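Input (structure):
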Protein backbone atom coordinates (compact mmCIF):
# COMPACT_ATOMS: atom_id res chain seq x y z
CA UNK A 1 0.00 0.00 0.00
CA UNK A 2 1.13 3.53 -0.67
CA UNK A 3 0.79 4.39 3.04
CA UNK A 4 4.15 2.70 3.64
CA UNK A 5 5.92 5.32 1.55
CA UNK A 6 5.49 7.80 4.36
CA UNK A 7 8.01 5.80 6.33
CA UNK A 8 10.62 5.05 3.69
CA UNK A 9 11.70 8.53 2.59
CA UNK A 10 14.39 10.79 3.98
CA UNK A 11 13.90 11.60 7.63
CA UNK A 12 13.51 15.18 8.87
CA UNK A 13 16.74 17.16 9.10
CA UNK A 14 18.38 17.97 12.40
CA UNK A 15 16.14 20.37 14.33
CA UNK A 16 18.82 22.81 15.53
CA UNK A 17 20.37 22.99 12.08
CA UNK A 18 17.02 23.82 10.51
CA UNK A 19 16.31 26.54 13.08
CA UNK A 20 19.71 28.08 12.38
CA UNK A 21 19.13 27.98 8.63
CA UNK A 22 15.72 29.54 8.96
CA UNK A 23 17.26 32.52 10.71
CA UNK A 24 20.19 32.74 8.28
CA UNK A 25 18.60 32.33 4.86
CA UNK A 26 15.86 34.50 3.45
CA UNK A 27 14.74 33.86 -0.11
CA UNK A 28 12.32 35.79 -2.28
CA UNK A 29 10.41 33.06 -4.13
CA UNK A 30 7.77 33.24 -6.80
CA UNK A 31 6.11 30.42 -8.68
CA UNK A 32 7.70 31.42 -11.98
CA UNK A 33 11.19 32.65 -11.07
CA UNK A 34 13.78 30.73 -9.09
CA UNK A 35 16.71 32.95 -10.04
CA UNK A 36 16.65 35.26 -7.02
CA UNK A 37 19.79 35.42 -4.89
CA UNK A 38 19.66 35.03 -1.13
CA UNK A 39 20.49 38.02 1.04
CA UNK A 40 23.95 36.66 1.93
CA UNK A 41 24.91 35.87 -1.67
CA UNK A 42 24.41 32.11 -1.47
CA UNK A 43 23.24 30.70 -4.82
CA UNK A 44 19.58 29.62 -5.16
CA UNK A 45 18.81 26.21 -3.69
CA UNK A 46 16.62 23.63 -5.43
CA UNK A 47 15.32 21.09 -2.88
CA UNK A 48 14.38 18.64 -5.63
CA UNK A 49 17.97 18.43 -6.84
CA UNK A 50 19.26 17.56 -3.37
CA UNK A 51 16.96 14.67 -2.52
CA UNK A 52 18.83 11.40 -2.08
CA UNK A 53 16.44 8.46 -2.45
CA UNK A 54 17.38 4.81 -2.39
CA UNK A 55 14.45 3.67 -4.53
CA UNK A 56 12.77 6.69 -6.19
CA UNK A 57 9.57 6.17 -8.15
CA UNK A 58 8.92 7.44 -11.67
CA UNK A 59 5.75 9.26 -12.74
CA UNK A 60 3.85 6.11 -13.76
CA UNK A 61 4.73 4.27 -10.54
CA UNK A 62 3.68 7.26 -8.45
CA UNK A 63 0.36 7.47 -10.29
CA UNK A 64 -0.25 3.75 -9.74
CA UNK A 65 0.51 4.13 -6.02
CA UNK A 66 -1.88 7.07 -5.80
CA UNK A 67 -4.69 5.15 -7.51
CA UNK A 68 -3.96 1.99 -5.55
CA UNK A 69 -4.10 3.81 -2.25
CA UNK A 70 -7.63 5.06 -2.99
CA UNK A 71 -9.27 1.65 -3.27
CA UNK A 72 -10.08 0.91 0.35
CA UNK A 73 -12.84 1.50 2.87
CA UNK A 74 -13.29 5.05 1.56
CA UNK A 75 -14.55 4.11 -1.88
CA UNK A 76 -16.69 1.33 -0.38
CA UNK A 77 -18.44 3.94 1.80
CA UNK A 78 -19.42 6.24 -1.07
CA UNK A 79 -22.93 4.75 -1.69
CA UNK A 80 -23.76 5.55 1.93
CA UNK A 81 -22.39 9.07 1.41
CA UNK A 82 -24.71 9.52 -1.59
CA UNK A 83 -27.61 8.29 0.56
CA UNK A 84 -26.92 11.27 2.85
CA UNK A 85 -26.78 13.73 -0.05
CA UNK A 86 -28.93 12.50 -2.95
CA UNK A 87 -27.73 11.74 -6.47
CA UNK A 88 -27.35 15.30 -7.75
CA UNK A 89 -25.90 16.84 -4.60
CA UNK A 90 -23.63 13.82 -4.17
CA UNK A 91 -22.27 14.00 -7.71
CA UNK A 92 -21.66 17.75 -7.69
CA UNK A 93 -20.47 17.70 -4.08
CA UNK A 94 -17.95 14.90 -4.62
CA UNK A 95 -16.50 16.68 -7.65
CA UNK A 96 -16.25 19.97 -5.75
CA UNK A 97 -14.66 18.30 -2.72
CA UNK A 98 -12.25 16.51 -5.04
CA UNK A 99 -11.27 19.83 -6.64
CA UNK A 100 -10.93 21.45 -3.20
CA UNK A 101 -8.78 18.64 -1.79
CA UNK A 102 -6.56 18.63 -4.87
CA UNK A 103 -6.10 22.39 -4.81
CA UNK A 104 -5.22 22.38 -1.09
CA UNK A 105 -2.64 19.64 -1.71
CA UNK A 106 -1.08 21.86 -4.38
CA UNK A 107 -1.03 24.73 -1.87
CA UNK A 108 0.70 22.59 0.76
CA UNK A 109 3.30 21.13 -1.61
CA UNK A 110 4.07 24.55 -3.10
CA UNK A 111 4.45 26.09 0.36
CA UNK A 112 6.69 23.27 1.53
CA UNK A 113 8.90 23.80 -1.53
CA UNK A 114 9.36 27.47 -0.65
CA UNK A 115 10.18 26.58 2.96
CA UNK A 116 12.68 23.96 1.82
CA UNK A 117 14.42 26.59 -0.32
CA UNK A 118 14.67 28.95 2.64
CA UNK A 119 16.01 26.24 4.92
CA UNK A 120 18.13 24.72 2.15
CA UNK A 121 16.73 21.29 3.00
CA UNK A 122 15.45 18.67 0.51
CA UNK A 123 12.37 17.62 2.48
CA UNK A 124 10.28 18.89 5.39
CA UNK A 125 7.69 16.93 7.31
CA UNK A 126 4.16 18.30 7.68
CA UNK A 127 4.60 19.21 11.40
CA UNK A 128 7.94 20.95 10.72
CA UNK A 129 6.39 22.83 7.81
CA UNK A 130 3.73 24.24 10.11
CA UNK A 131 6.28 25.18 12.78
CA UNK A 132 8.72 26.99 10.52
CA UNK A 133 5.95 28.69 8.56
CA UNK A 134 4.47 30.14 11.75
CA UNK A 135 7.90 31.42 12.85
CA UNK A 136 8.00 33.80 9.90
CA UNK A 137 4.26 34.41 9.65
CA UNK A 138 2.11 37.15 11.19
CA UNK A 139 3.31 38.09 14.67
CA UNK A 140 -0.07 37.39 16.28
CA UNK A 141 0.21 33.73 15.19
CA UNK A 142 3.69 33.08 16.56
CA UNK A 143 2.37 32.18 20.00
CA UNK A 144 1.39 28.86 18.40
CA UNK A 145 4.92 27.94 17.29
CA UNK A 146 5.82 25.80 20.36
CA UNK A 147 2.68 23.67 20.03
CA UNK A 148 2.22 23.72 16.25
CA UNK A 149 4.10 20.49 15.49
CA UNK A 150 2.36 18.75 18.40
CA UNK A 151 -1.06 19.85 17.11
CA UNK A 152 -0.37 18.62 13.57
CA UNK A 153 1.00 15.33 14.91
CA UNK A 154 -2.05 15.06 17.16
CA UNK A 155 -4.44 15.30 14.21
CA UNK A 156 -2.30 12.87 12.19
CA UNK A 157 -2.25 10.33 15.03
CA UNK A 158 -5.98 10.74 15.69
CA UNK A 159 -6.73 10.19 12.03
CA UNK A 160 -4.55 7.08 11.81
CA UNK A 161 -6.12 5.63 14.95
CA UNK A 162 -9.55 6.51 13.57
CA UNK A 163 -8.77 4.55 10.42
CA UNK A 164 -7.76 1.59 12.60
CA UNK A 165 -11.10 1.79 14.44
CA UNK A 166 -12.97 1.82 11.13
CA UNK A 167 -10.95 -1.17 9.94
CA UNK A 168 -11.79 -3.22 13.04
CA UNK A 169 -15.50 -2.47 12.60
CA UNK A 170 -15.31 -3.32 8.90
CA UNK A 171 -13.60 -6.67 9.49
CA UNK A 172 -15.98 -7.62 12.32
CA UNK A 173 -19.08 -6.73 10.30
CA UNK A 174 -17.83 -8.58 7.22
CA UNK A 175 -17.00 -11.77 9.13
CA UNK A 176 -20.33 -11.64 10.96
CA UNK A 177 -22.34 -11.46 7.73
CA UNK A 178 -20.59 -14.56 6.37
CA UNK A 179 -20.49 -16.72 9.50
CA UNK A 180 -24.06 -15.89 10.50
CA UNK A 181 -25.11 -18.00 7.52
CA UNK A 182 -23.44 -21.10 8.98
CA UNK A 183 -23.46 -20.76 12.76
CA UNK A 184 -25.66 -19.25 15.43
CA UNK A 185 -25.76 -15.45 14.78
CA UNK A 186 -23.69 -13.40 17.21
CA UNK A 187 -23.15 -9.71 17.87
CA UNK A 188 -20.36 -8.32 15.69
CA UNK A 189 -18.51 -7.30 18.85
CA UNK A 190 -17.70 -10.94 19.51
CA UNK A 191 -16.02 -11.19 16.14
CA UNK A 192 -14.05 -8.04 16.94
CA UNK A 193 -12.91 -9.67 20.20
CA UNK A 194 -11.69 -12.68 18.22
CA UNK A 195 -9.59 -10.27 16.14
CA UNK A 196 -7.76 -8.79 19.12
CA UNK A 197 -4.85 -11.25 19.39
CA UNK A 198 -4.25 -11.46 15.60
CA UNK A 199 -4.24 -7.65 15.42
CA UNK A 200 -1.74 -7.43 18.27
CA UNK A 201 0.44 -10.07 16.62
CA UNK A 202 0.61 -8.35 13.23
CA UNK A 203 1.16 -4.96 14.86
CA UNK A 204 4.22 -6.29 16.71
CA UNK A 205 6.05 -6.57 13.38
CA UNK A 206 8.60 -3.73 13.48
CA UNK A 207 10.10 -4.22 10.01
CA UNK A 208 8.01 -2.98 7.11
CA UNK A 209 9.86 -5.26 4.71
CA UNK A 210 8.20 -8.24 6.39
CA UNK A 211 4.80 -6.68 5.67
CA UNK A 212 5.57 -5.87 2.04
CA UNK A 213 4.55 -9.28 0.55
CA UNK A 214 1.30 -9.18 2.52
CA UNK A 215 0.69 -5.62 1.33
CA UNK A 216 1.01 -6.69 -2.31
CA UNK A 217 -1.43 -9.54 -1.67
CA UNK A 218 -3.86 -7.02 -0.15
CA UNK A 219 -3.56 -4.83 -3.25
CA UNK A 220 -4.31 -7.69 -5.62
CA UNK A 221 -7.32 -9.02 -3.78
CA UNK A 222 -8.67 -5.50 -3.28
CA UNK A 223 -8.73 -4.90 -7.04
CA UNK A 224 -10.36 -8.29 -7.61
CA UNK A 225 -12.91 -7.67 -4.88
CA UNK A 226 -13.85 -4.24 -6.18
CA UNK A 227 -14.40 -5.69 -9.66
CA UNK A 228 -16.80 -8.28 -8.25
CA UNK A 229 -18.63 -5.60 -6.22
CA UNK A 230 -19.17 -3.55 -9.38
CA UNK A 231 -20.52 -6.64 -11.14
CA UNK A 232 -23.17 -6.97 -8.42
CA UNK A 233 -23.97 -3.25 -8.60
CA UNK A 234 -24.63 -3.24 -12.35
CA UNK A 235 -26.62 -6.48 -12.32
CA UNK A 236 -30.35 -5.63 -12.44
CA UNK A 237 -29.64 -1.95 -11.71
CA UNK A 238 -32.87 -0.04 -10.86
CA UNK A 239 -33.75 3.10 -12.87
CA UNK A 240 -31.92 6.24 -11.79
CA UNK A 241 -35.26 8.00 -11.35
CA UNK A 242 -36.00 5.68 -8.41
CA UNK A 243 -33.60 7.64 -6.16
CA UNK A 244 -33.93 11.26 -4.99
CA UNK A 245 -31.63 13.87 -6.47
CA UNK A 246 -31.45 15.87 -3.23
CA UNK A 247 -31.06 14.43 0.24
CA UNK A 248 -31.94 15.74 3.69
CA UNK A 249 -29.93 18.96 4.30
CA UNK A 250 -29.06 17.98 7.86
CA UNK A 251 -27.19 14.94 6.56
CA UNK A 252 -25.01 16.92 4.15
CA UNK A 253 -22.31 17.23 6.80
CA UNK A 254 -22.22 13.42 7.06
CA UNK A 255 -21.75 13.32 3.30
CA UNK A 256 -18.93 15.86 3.50
CA UNK A 257 -17.22 13.95 6.32
CA UNK A 258 -17.43 10.61 4.50
CA UNK A 259 -16.24 12.11 1.21
CA UNK A 260 -13.32 13.86 2.92
CA UNK A 261 -12.39 10.55 4.56
CA UNK A 262 -12.49 8.86 1.16
CA UNK A 263 -10.79 11.51 -0.97
CA UNK A 264 -8.35 13.33 1.29
CA UNK A 265 -5.01 11.54 1.61
CA UNK A 266 -2.60 14.28 2.59
CA UNK A 267 -0.09 11.96 4.30
CA UNK A 268 0.03 9.54 1.37
CA UNK A 269 0.29 12.33 -1.22
CA UNK A 270 3.18 14.04 0.59
CA UNK A 271 4.98 10.71 0.90
CA UNK A 272 4.53 9.99 -2.80
CA UNK A 273 5.85 13.42 -3.80
CA UNK A 274 8.81 13.01 -1.45
CA UNK A 275 9.75 9.69 -3.05
CA UNK A 276 9.55 10.75 -6.71
CA UNK A 277 12.51 10.71 -9.08
CA UNK A 278 11.13 13.86 -10.74
CA UNK A 279 9.07 15.64 -8.04
CA UNK A 280 8.61 18.68 -10.29
CA UNK A 281 6.29 16.48 -12.39
CA UNK A 282 3.96 15.92 -9.45
CA UNK A 283 2.25 19.30 -9.76
CA UNK A 284 1.22 21.20 -12.84
CA UNK A 285 -1.95 21.10 -14.90
CA UNK A 286 -1.23 17.64 -16.31
CA UNK A 287 0.95 16.49 -13.41
CA UNK A 288 0.63 13.25 -11.48
CA UNK A 289 -1.51 14.79 -8.72
CA UNK A 290 -4.14 16.29 -11.05
CA UNK A 291 -4.34 13.19 -13.25
CA UNK A 292 -4.54 10.85 -10.26
CA UNK A 293 -7.07 12.88 -8.28
CA UNK A 294 -9.26 13.34 -11.38
CA UNK A 295 -9.37 9.57 -11.91
CA UNK A 296 -9.98 8.93 -8.20
CA UNK A 297 -12.78 11.50 -7.98
CA UNK A 298 -14.53 10.04 -11.04
CA UNK A 299 -14.22 6.51 -9.60
CA UNK A 300 -15.71 7.66 -6.32
CA UNK A 301 -18.57 9.43 -8.08
CA UNK A 302 -19.30 6.30 -10.14
CA UNK A 303 -19.27 3.92 -7.18
CA UNK A 304 -21.27 6.31 -4.98
CA UNK A 305 -23.81 7.14 -7.69
CA UNK A 306 -24.52 3.64 -8.97
CA UNK A 307 -24.11 2.04 -5.55
CA UNK A 308 -26.82 4.31 -4.19
CA UNK A 309 -29.02 3.69 -7.26
CA UNK A 310 -28.62 -0.04 -6.57
CA UNK A 311 -29.22 -0.11 -2.81
CA UNK A 312 -30.96 3.18 -1.99
CA UNK A 313 -31.56 3.94 1.67
CA UNK A 314 -30.27 0.46 2.54
CA UNK A 315 -26.73 1.50 1.53
CA UNK A 316 -24.47 0.63 4.45
CA UNK A 317 -21.14 1.91 5.71
CA UNK A 318 -19.45 -0.43 3.23
CA UNK A 319 -21.11 -1.51 0.01
CA UNK A 320 -19.79 -5.05 0.58
CA UNK A 321 -22.25 -5.35 3.46
CA UNK A 322 -25.11 -4.90 0.95
CA UNK A 323 -24.13 -7.89 -1.17
CA UNK A 324 -26.42 -10.98 -1.04
CA UNK A 325 -25.74 -12.80 2.20
CA UNK A 326 -26.46 -16.28 0.79
CA UNK A 327 -24.41 -15.89 -2.39
CA UNK A 328 -21.08 -17.73 -2.14
CA UNK A 329 -19.32 -15.23 -4.41
CA UNK A 330 -20.54 -12.34 -2.27
CA UNK A 331 -19.36 -14.14 0.85
CA UNK A 332 -15.95 -14.62 -0.74
CA UNK A 333 -15.75 -10.90 -1.56
CA UNK A 334 -16.53 -9.95 2.03
CA UNK A 335 -13.85 -12.29 3.33
CA UNK A 336 -11.15 -11.17 0.90
CA UNK A 337 -11.84 -7.53 1.72
CA UNK A 338 -11.67 -8.44 5.41
CA UNK A 339 -8.24 -10.04 4.83
CA UNK A 340 -7.02 -7.04 2.81
CA UNK A 341 -8.17 -4.55 5.45
CA UNK A 342 -6.66 -6.71 8.23
CA UNK A 343 -3.26 -6.47 6.54
CA UNK A 344 -3.68 -2.75 5.91
CA UNK A 345 -4.51 -2.22 9.60
CA UNK A 346 -0.89 -3.03 10.44
CA UNK A 347 0.33 -0.37 8.01
CA UNK A 348 -2.02 2.31 9.35
CA UNK A 349 -1.12 1.49 12.95
CA UNK A 350 2.56 1.53 11.97
CA UNK A 351 2.25 5.19 10.93
CA UNK A 352 0.73 6.18 14.30
CA UNK A 353 3.35 4.19 16.21
CA UNK A 354 6.14 5.72 14.13
CA UNK A 355 5.03 9.27 14.97
CA UNK A 356 4.50 8.61 18.69
CA UNK A 357 7.65 6.53 19.18
CA UNK A 358 10.23 8.40 17.13
CA UNK A 359 8.98 11.93 17.86
CA UNK A 360 7.85 11.79 21.48
CA UNK A 361 8.98 8.64 23.29
CA UNK A 362 12.27 7.24 22.02
CA UNK A 363 14.54 10.10 23.10
CA UNK A 364 12.83 10.50 26.48
CA UNK A 365 13.23 6.91 27.64
CA UNK A 366 16.39 6.53 29.69
CA UNK A 367 15.93 3.87 32.35
CA UNK A 368 13.71 1.43 30.47
CA UNK A 369 14.42 -1.09 27.76
CA UNK A 370 13.49 0.67 24.53
CA UNK A 371 12.44 -2.47 22.66
CA UNK A 372 10.09 -3.43 25.48
CA UNK A 373 8.60 0.06 25.59
CA UNK A 374 8.06 0.09 21.83
CA UNK A 375 6.28 -3.27 21.96
CA UNK A 376 4.16 -1.90 24.80
CA UNK A 377 3.25 1.10 22.65
CA UNK A 378 2.27 -1.16 19.75
CA UNK A 379 0.02 -3.23 21.99
CA UNK A 380 -1.48 -0.06 23.48
CA UNK A 381 -2.36 1.33 20.05
CA UNK A 382 -4.25 -1.86 19.20
CA UNK A 383 -6.05 -1.86 22.56
CA UNK A 384 -7.13 1.78 22.23
CA UNK A 385 -8.56 1.31 18.73
CA UNK A 386 -10.11 -2.02 19.72
CA UNK A 387 -11.89 -0.64 22.80
CA UNK A 388 -13.23 2.33 20.82
CA UNK A 389 -14.46 0.11 17.98
CA UNK A 390 -16.15 -2.38 20.30
CA UNK A 391 -17.71 0.38 22.40
CA UNK A 392 -19.23 2.25 19.45
CA UNK A 393 -19.60 -0.10 16.43
CA UNK A 394 -21.10 2.45 14.03
CA UNK A 395 -19.06 2.09 10.84
CA UNK A 396 -20.61 4.77 8.62
CA UNK A 397 -20.78 7.33 11.44
CA UNK A 398 -17.14 6.77 12.41
CA UNK A 399 -16.03 7.25 8.82
CA UNK A 400 -17.85 10.59 8.70
CA UNK A 401 -16.60 11.58 12.17
CA UNK A 402 -12.91 11.12 11.46
CA UNK A 403 -13.21 12.68 8.02
CA UNK A 404 -14.73 15.82 9.53
CA UNK A 405 -12.59 15.80 12.68
CA UNK A 406 -9.16 15.45 11.11
CA UNK A 407 -9.14 15.86 7.35
CA UNK A 408 -11.04 19.14 7.29
CA UNK A 409 -8.09 20.57 9.23
CA UNK A 410 -5.17 18.58 7.82
CA UNK A 411 -6.36 18.79 4.22
CA UNK A 412 -7.96 22.25 4.01
CA UNK A 413 -7.33 24.66 6.92
CA UNK A 414 -3.67 23.91 7.72
CA UNK A 415 -2.39 24.13 4.10
CA UNK A 416 -4.08 27.53 3.75
CA UNK A 417 -2.59 28.72 7.06
CA UNK A 418 0.89 27.55 6.04
CA UNK A 419 0.63 29.38 2.71
CA UNK A 420 -0.35 32.63 4.45
CA UNK A 421 2.65 32.38 6.77
CA UNK A 422 5.06 31.44 3.97
CA UNK A 423 4.02 34.38 1.78
CA UNK A 424 3.71 36.85 4.66
CA UNK A 425 7.36 38.08 4.86
CA UNK A 426 7.36 39.15 1.21
CA UNK A 427 3.67 40.16 1.16
CA UNK A 428 3.46 38.08 -2.04
CA UNK A 429 -0.34 37.69 -2.12
CA UNK A 430 -0.97 38.99 -5.64
CA UNK A 431 -3.30 41.77 -6.84
CA UNK A 432 -5.67 43.00 -4.10
CA UNK A 433 -4.05 40.32 -1.86
CA UNK A 434 -6.47 37.78 -3.35
CA UNK A 435 -4.34 34.84 -2.17
CA UNK A 436 -4.68 36.01 1.44
CA UNK A 437 -8.47 36.32 1.19
CA UNK A 438 -8.68 32.96 -0.60
CA UNK A 439 -6.69 31.27 2.17
CA UNK A 440 -8.80 32.88 4.88
CA UNK A 441 -11.90 31.50 3.14
CA UNK A 442 -10.31 28.02 3.02
CA UNK A 443 -9.54 28.21 6.75
CA UNK A 444 -13.16 29.16 7.47
CA UNK A 445 -14.41 26.26 5.31
CA UNK A 446 -12.07 23.83 7.08
CA UNK A 447 -13.10 25.01 10.55
CA UNK A 448 -16.81 24.89 9.69
CA UNK A 449 -16.43 21.36 8.32
CA UNK A 450 -14.58 20.42 11.50
CA UNK A 451 -17.14 21.88 13.91
CA UNK A 452 -20.40 21.05 12.12
CA UNK A 453 -19.28 17.65 10.83
CA UNK A 454 -17.92 16.53 14.18
CA UNK A 455 -20.98 17.82 16.07
CA UNK A 456 -23.52 16.09 13.84
CA UNK A 457 -21.51 12.85 13.64
CA UNK A 458 -21.21 12.67 17.43
CA UNK A 459 -24.88 13.59 17.78
CA UNK A 460 -25.90 10.76 15.42
CA UNK A 461 -23.63 8.29 17.23
CA UNK A 462 -25.36 9.18 20.52
CA UNK A 463 -28.81 8.91 18.91
CA UNK A 464 -27.96 5.48 17.46
CA UNK A 465 -27.84 4.11 21.02
CA UNK A 466 -31.24 5.50 21.96
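Output (sequence):
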Amino acid sequence: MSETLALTGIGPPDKELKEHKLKTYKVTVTSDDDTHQTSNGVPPYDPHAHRILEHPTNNSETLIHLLKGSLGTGILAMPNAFYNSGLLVGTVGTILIGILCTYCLHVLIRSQYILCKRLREPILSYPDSMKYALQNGPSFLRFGVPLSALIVDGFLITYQLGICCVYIMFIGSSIKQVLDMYIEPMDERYYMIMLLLPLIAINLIRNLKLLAPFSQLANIITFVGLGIVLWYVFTDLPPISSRPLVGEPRKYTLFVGTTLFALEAVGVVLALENNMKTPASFGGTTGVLNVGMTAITLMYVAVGFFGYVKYGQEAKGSITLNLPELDLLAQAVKLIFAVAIFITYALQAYVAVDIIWNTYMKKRIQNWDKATMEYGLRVSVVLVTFVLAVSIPRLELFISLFGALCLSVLGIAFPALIEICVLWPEDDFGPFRYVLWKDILLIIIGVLALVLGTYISVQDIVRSFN
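Notes: The longest helix spans residues 145-179. The CA atoms of residues 61 and 152 lie 29 Å apart.
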